Amino acid sequence: MPRSHASLPRLFVEADLVAGTQLTLSKDQSLYLAAVLRRTVGDAVVLFNGRDGAWLCKLTSDSKKSVALEIVEQIVPQTPPSDLWYGFAPLKSERLDYMVQKAVELGVGTIQPVMTQFTQLHRLKPERLSANAVEAAEQCEVLNVPQIAPAIDLDVLLDGWVETHGDRKLVFADEGEASSSPVSALEQLRGQRIGLIIGPEGGFSDAEREKLRALTFVVPISLGPRILRADTAAVAGLAVIQAIIGDWR
Amino acid sequence: MPRSHASLPRLFVEADLVAGTQLTLSKDQSLYLAAVLRRTVGDAVVLFNGRDGAWLCKLTSDSKKSVALEIVEQIVPQTPPSDLWYGFAPLKSERLDYMVQKAVELGVGTIQPVMTQFTQLHRLKPERLSANAVEAAEQCEVLNVPQIAPAIDLDVLLDGWVETHGDRKLVFADEGEASSSPVSALEQLRGQRIGLIIGPEGGFSDAEREKLRALTFVVPISLGPRILRADTAAVAGLAVIQAIIGDWR
Q1: What Å distances lie between residue B161 and B53, B186, B204, B217, B239, CA to CA?
Q2: Do B70 and B154 share a structural domain?
Q3: Do residues B179 and B224 make contact, with C-beta atoms less than 8 angstroms apart?
Q4: I need a labelling partner for B239 at 20 to 30 A (CA). Which of A97, B27, B35, B171 fits?
Q5: Chosen domain end from A43, A76, A109
């Protein structure tokens, strides 16, 4: 994208984006554009909806309650959705937001909170996760907003995995795995559908680890010789997957 | 390390650690152990100094001003220091702390703040960086505390690189590099001394990028098709380096 577009406000909308049509934004987005960012008639904005790519649009009304835009032209074609599934034991408050943001930056397709024995957070607002995913996509110019799946207990996830996910393999960073490079383990998964699960701050329990390691669809990997905090493991794990067999191509 | 040691307090000290000797902790560490953690005579603590590995120690005095310990036995041998150099444009406040913590978790040997054109933070307290590095090492059971080098301007760093760093190669995540997997670029550096530099939130300026790309010791890599925030790029970059040609073995 030309650098000039990089500094334009970028908003996610549900509506179709078609050249020459008009669109009215929600109250929240109108307030944001007109009152916070002080955009006026004629100013440019980028819109995306996860289906039609990124579009250059111009304000035709700057009312704080009801900004209207003309959809002008597509500036970036739609990127295909990611197949990468990502489950993580939710952390508290801003660290939870962080986990969702980083997952979006690293190109995950589905995000699912997974409740494990040592999980700290027990009540989740799905709207919060969705809002964070949308905001992260807006800020990092990601054209696909990951699906947020409902929170699920680890046992239920694993017991229902084959029925729900078919031939998808599940990678997990096993703290008990001897330190090694994950490169060869991941290379063997090239071309397959995969998921990554990240445990809570205290890690998986011994029983959870045993259960995971016994499942044929599970692929344990090492993330090196040091203990990683959950949020570090999340970014490190997603990065090595995307770099080695994912969409860093 | 046996799981029973994993929950013991772990503190960094400067003194040598020799079986059968006594050691008195600083005021701050004494207060922390005796008043905050409420440890008493006979309780176990783990000490490390970056040279002698990790040692099991027992309190012989629990005075809040002056905790004394008997050094009992080594429980983990010393890991070799890391040769990985890591420079980053400092971010503000807690995000700065975060950058240092993640670098320690990912096994960096030297940490150096680098001032670039778009760097947000212009005044740095070296003591803060060192304190963060020590705390991260304590929390993540890392036995080497990275050296913190003084803040340096990017131009000065690059102009003096060969004289200071010899044959060390400098990897940088180039947002302008077409999306690709960094695996082959990194494989070519296997066995060589390397560094990674992470730019500020706004990235490197065009002039800085041109200068970097023109230098023979610089190796540009891609970190995928999406824009990564500086703190994401830091963890992703360090993780792929360590996984592919570093100490994840």
Answers
A1: 32, 20, 18, 9, 24
A2: no
A3: yes
A4: A97
A5: A76
B118, B229, B248, best to mutate vs chain A, most A CBs in 10 Å: B248
Verify that B41 and B104 share a domain, yes or no: no
Check if the beta carbon of residue A215 is closer than 8 Å to that of residue A158.
Answer: yes
User: B141 to chain A: which residues are within 8 Å by CB?
Assistant: 226-227
Question: Which run of H or of E encompasses A196?
Answer: strand A194-198
Nearest Cα to A129, choosing from A152, A115, A148, A142?
A148
Please give the residue that has the higher pLDDT: either B221 or B178.
B221
Q: For A1-28, how does the pLDDT look when each residue is reduced to its tens digit (9 = 90+)?
A: 444 667 899 999 999 999 999 999 999 9
Q: Are residues A138 and A236 in the same domain?
A: yes
| Chain B interface test: which of A79, A232, A244 (most B C-beta within 10 Å) | A232
The boundaries of the domain holding residue A172 are: 85-244
Complex ipTM: 0.93
Residue B244 in contact with partner chain A when CB distance is under 8 A: yes
The reply to whether residue A105 touches residue B228, judged by beta carbons under 8 angstroms, is yes
Mean pLDDT of B226-245: 96
B226–A182: do the CB atoms touch at under 8 Å? no
B239 and A223: CB-CB below 8 Å? yes
Q: Of A59, A53, A51, A6, nearest to A30 (Cα)?
A: A59
pTM across the whole model: 0.94
CA distance B134 to B145: 6
Cβ contact, residue pair A226, B140, below 8 Å: yes
